[in-house]
């Protein structure tokens, strides 16, 4: 998708220069208009934590934080991220110190195969930033955009429930 | 996804002058990019409208609220003015999509979502909405999720939005800007029934951009309820949804609004039923009679007859919950 189509000798389509903050680092990048943020992260920047599960906004495995809000990177054009502040799962930890949400996922064994986990964790941090989940039912409803085909939902829910106060105390750093 | 040109205009005037039949405006992109990945839409030019100054939610002189077209679904659902004065709209928005998609999707874009009919999404089969005149495999195919009201021989698709069902009930007004000027479209006229031109979902011209959605003053905050029935508890499109809003004087209904989602090519309203409700007592019997009246016109297909019964029960429950002061009370 991000590649120049086969047989296109000199594409008439210009690349666009964008500047953004990615996991705390300022970046200047040249992107083709049809490159998604997910493809930019995975194919061009080697940030492969965000996963391409469905590529249609249905599974949440590509969830990243844009200006603190969770979004599907697969349905975001990279060219439209000019000026954005992006955080992927690779940017959550503070050096060797894991983010409270990451710690809670380990403590509660909130994964089996781990494929959906980066999206789950980014989504859960976004959930904390939103401040709208006050009980178990609200956590479940507001995490419905992240599928886990292993079915680790109960542990994911427990991890998030435990980590929410610590994330709120962190005060929307991400 | 096909290659395309990209531009990002700074004002509405520039945006509409850049537009053509081969271009699309993009804001949240949650539906458009999905359609492009499926090669169902192949625009030559995307016009990024996220730099336009259309992000305000503000009160109008007439006591209503003007919502900028770029306000995200999440910001709108959780806006204090909407939560307090138009809880029906907040409920409907939060019943749709996922938190990620609601953070991305815009107010204007929500109106322009295309159907999730699986034949429309499958480019290997005919579809009158995708390729006019090619046929409709849904009519005699698997049509469990399809329309029971207002369909045509050409198309039995349903409109997917929850937000629009509430906007229909609230009689919102859509503000649009074209090259030749601005105009407003009342919500009931914005979306189309399929008729013999199902490729057209709405009344917008190619050069027209939605700039705002206006809510009239009447928000029915005391007595309203949005009920959505779907195949799983969250993050699924409606089989049937109901936006019910009442203005009550004691037990008597002064005004009633009733809009259905998941049953037609557009949010479905029946003015005759709403008028019949006015002046009657807000009782179970009244609501059952109203539901039966509305569904007299239903024409179910092979697999969706269950929707008629489901819609009847959903209408009665939504009106009953609205009369009790909404689900939260």
List the helices and strands and how they pair.
The complex is a heterodimer of chains A (174) and B (329).
Chain A: E1 16-22, E2 25-31, H1 37-44, E3 63-66, E4 69-72, E5 85-87, H2 100-107, H3 117-130, H4 136-142, H5 153-170
Parallel strand pairs in A: 1-5
Antiparallel strand pairs in A: 1-2, 3-4, 3-5
Chain B: E1 5-7, H1 12-18, E2 23-26, H2 32-37, E3 45-48, E4 57-59, E5 65-68, H3 73-77, H4 80-85, H5 87-94, H6 99-104, H7 107-111, H8 163-169, E6 173-178, E7 181-186, H9 187-190, E8 209-215, E9 224-229, E10 240-249, E11 252-261, E12 268-269, H10 271-277, H11 284-295, H12 306-323
Parallel strand pairs in B: 1-3, 2-3
Antiparallel strand pairs in B: 4-5, 5-8, 6-7, 6-8, 9-10, 10-11, 11-12
List low-pLDDT spans of chain B: none
Spatial strand sequence of the major β-sheet of chain A? 2-1-5-3-4
Write out the CATH superfamily name of the largest domain in chain A: Beta-grasp domain
CATH topology of the largest domain in chain A: Ubiquitin-like (UB roll)
CATH class of the largest domain in chain A: Alpha Beta
User: What is the SS-derived class of chain A?
Assistant: alpha+beta
Task: Note the quaternary state here.
Answer: heterodimer
Name the structural class of chain B: alpha+beta
Strand content of chain A: 5-15%
Count the E strands of chain B.
Answer: 12
Q: Which pair of chains forms the biggest interface, and how many residues does each contribute? A: A-B, 38 and 27 residues
Helix-residue proportion of chain B:
25-40%
Helix/strand order of chain B? EHEHEEEHHHHHHEEHEEEEEHHH
Q: Helix content range of the residues of chain A, please?
A: 25-40%
Q: What top-tier CATH class of the domain at 224-323 in chain B fits best?
A: Alpha Beta
Secondary-structure element series of chain A: EEHEEEHHHH
InterPro entries (chain A): 2Fe-2S-bd (IPR002888), 2Fe-2S-bd_dom_sf (IPR036884), 2Fe-2S_ferredoxin-like_sf (IPR036010), 2Fe-2S_ferredoxin-type (IPR001041), 2Fe2S_fd_BS (IPR006058), Aldehyde_Oxdr_Iron-Sulfur (IPR052914), Beta-grasp_dom_sf (IPR012675)
GO molecular function, one term (chain A): oxidoreductase activity, acting on the aldehyde or oxo group of donors
Protein name (chain A): (2Fe-2S)-binding protein
Organism (chain A): Pseudomonas antarctica
């Amino acid at each position: 998708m991000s590649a120049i189509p086969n047989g296109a000798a000199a594409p008439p389509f210009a690349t666009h220069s964008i500047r953004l903050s990615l996991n705390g680092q300022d970046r200047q990048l040249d992107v083709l208009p049809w490159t998604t943020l997910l493809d930019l992260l995975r194919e061009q920047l080697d940030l492969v934590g965000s996963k391409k599960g469905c590529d249609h906004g249905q599974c949440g495995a590509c969830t990243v934080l844009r200006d603190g809000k969770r979004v599907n990177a697969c349905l975001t054009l990279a060219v439209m991220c000019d000026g954005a502040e992006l955080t992927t799962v690779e940017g959550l930890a503070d050096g060797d110190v894991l983010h409270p949400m990451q710690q809670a996922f380990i403590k509660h064994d909130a994964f089996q195969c781990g494929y959906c986990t980066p999206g789950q964790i980014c989504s859960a941090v976004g959930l904390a930033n939103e401040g709208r989940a006050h009980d178990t039912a609200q956590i479940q409803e507001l995490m419905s955009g992240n599928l886990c085909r292993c079915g680790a939902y109960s542990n994911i829910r427990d991890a998030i429930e435990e980590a929410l106060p610590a994330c709120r105390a962190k005060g929307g750093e991400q | 996804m096909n290659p395309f040109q990209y531009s990002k205009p700074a004002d509405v005037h520039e945006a509409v002058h850049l537009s053509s039949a081969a271009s699309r405006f993009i804001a949240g992109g949650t539906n458009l990019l999905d359609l492009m990945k499926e090669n169902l839409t192949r625009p030559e030019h995307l016009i990024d409208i996220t730099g336009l100054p259309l992000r305000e939610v503000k009160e109008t002189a007439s006591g209503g609220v003007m919502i900028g077209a770029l306000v995200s679904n999440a910001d709108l659902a959780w806006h204090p003015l909407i939560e307090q004065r138009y809880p029906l709209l907040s409920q409907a928005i939060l019943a749709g999509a996922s938190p990620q998609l609601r953070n991305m999707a815009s107010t204007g874009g929500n109106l322009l979502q295309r159907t999730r009919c699986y034949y429309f999404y499958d480019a290997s089969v005919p579809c009158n909405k995708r390729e006019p005149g090619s046929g409709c495999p849904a009519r005699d195919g698997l049509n469990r999720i399809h329309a029971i009201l207002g369909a045509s021989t050409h198309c039995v698709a349903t409109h997917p939005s929850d937000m629009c069902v509430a906007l229909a009930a609230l009689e919102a007004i859509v503000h649009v800007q074209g090259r030749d000027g601005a105009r407003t479209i009342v919500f009931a006229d914005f979306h189309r029934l399929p008729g013999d031109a199902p490729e057209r979902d709405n009344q917008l011209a190619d050069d027209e951009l939605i700039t705002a959605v206006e809510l009239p003053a009447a928000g029915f905050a005391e007595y309203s309820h949005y009920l959505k029935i779907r195949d799983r508890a969250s993050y699924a499109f409606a089989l049937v949804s109901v936006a019910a809003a009442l203005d009550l004087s004691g037990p008597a209904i002064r005004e009633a609004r009733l809009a259905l989602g998941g049953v037609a090519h557009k949010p479905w309203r029946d003015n005759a039923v709403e008028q019949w409700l006015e002046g009657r007592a807000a009782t179970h019997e009244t609501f059952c009679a109203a539901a039966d009246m509305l569904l007299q016109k239903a024409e179910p297909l092979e697999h969706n007859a269950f929707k008629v019964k489901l819609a009847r029960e959903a209408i009665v429950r939504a009106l009953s919950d609205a009369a009790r002061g909404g689900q939260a009370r």
